[in-house]
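Morning run. Coffee first, then this:
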Amino acid sequence: SLSESVDNQQKTIALWQILAERYQDEPTIAAYDLINEPNWSFTGGDLHPNGCDDQDNSLLWELQKDITAAIRAIDTNHIIVVEGNCWGNNYRGLPELWDNQLVLSFHKYWNGNTVQDIQHILDMRHERQVPVWLGESGENGNTWFTDCIELLEQHHIGWTWWPFKKLGFNNPVQVVKPKGYQAIQDYWRNKGPRP
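And here it is:
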């Protein structure tokens, strides 16, 4: 686990330094999203091992601060996207923001589309005076998509879908497998004869 290994944390920081060196002058890169969907209970809660109930998250914030510092030593141009614990949604314990080009990202799946459902994000944006962004969503129904976009745009929150989420299930980018394709996949996985 990244959260339990100092070596892995140092490797992650070093990787971000290499990425910053490569992309520091690249105008087509809008931002660096440091850790997609942190998903770890720092308090060891057995009921919610994904960090949804954690109140502190300080190890996550410290790692993201260290990554930001490593990037900023090389690249002062690009936006830094930070995600909370619990698939990007638990921002409890977030310290004072450590960079003036941060964006806080959250993810949204299979929940309501009322103001109450995003109030914690609106409150955080207002209290911290920081941009927020729905960095990932998808796999819900068309009515849910429509309601979600309307809600976000009413509150001036940018959004993006994960277009390849669960192919074959209500996806805006759908590729139907041609006849015989499954036989090829089975062969590649050593689960069937050569087609």
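The beta strands are 31-33, 79-83, 102-108, 132-137, 158-159. Good start to the day.
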